[in-house]
Amino acid sequence: MAVNLSKGQRISLEKVAPGLSEVFVGLGWDTNITDTGRDFDIDASVFLVDDNEKLLSDNHLIFYNNLASPDGNKSVEHLGDNRTGAGEGDDEVIKVNLKQVPAEINKIVMTVTIHEAEERQQNFGQVQNAFVRVVNAENQEEVARYDLTEDFSVETALIMAELYRKDGEWRVNAVGAGYQGGLQALLDRYQ
Which part of the chain is the TerD domain (predicted)? Predict the structure, then answer.
């Protein structure tokens, strides 16, 4: 049974799903009917950072134009861009092989941003039902889920959750932090 997380809550994946080796991280959202006159294009991105919370290289930013981590095993892989967010369930999915993530990657930061938010006059206050969930890739069972409930009325970028190493095991942190400035604000934070 999945653990429903609250903002700021952390759990050990080993405790809730012993032996977990590969996960899918699903991110989803619905957009409100707005009068901006433009469709939303929300993108999931993943920052692979070291223990100083810095991006290891430009290739360690995983997104629709760089779908896999640079390690030989491609331990972190973005499964593709969903330009509409239409339909139920996960809108974008990140596959993570926890056993093969290189040791220098201490944290895997899951983010979403609104493409061309400023030009389109859009923000996350116009988005509802946003969630991130961790699913056991082996049996498709949901392990942990975090449903965002805050109203991000000016933010155009969100850190949804983090997978991070502590004491030799992977853990999940439900972050739910909003930023103005879109993807650039997140790049500024992790570079």
Answer: 1-190
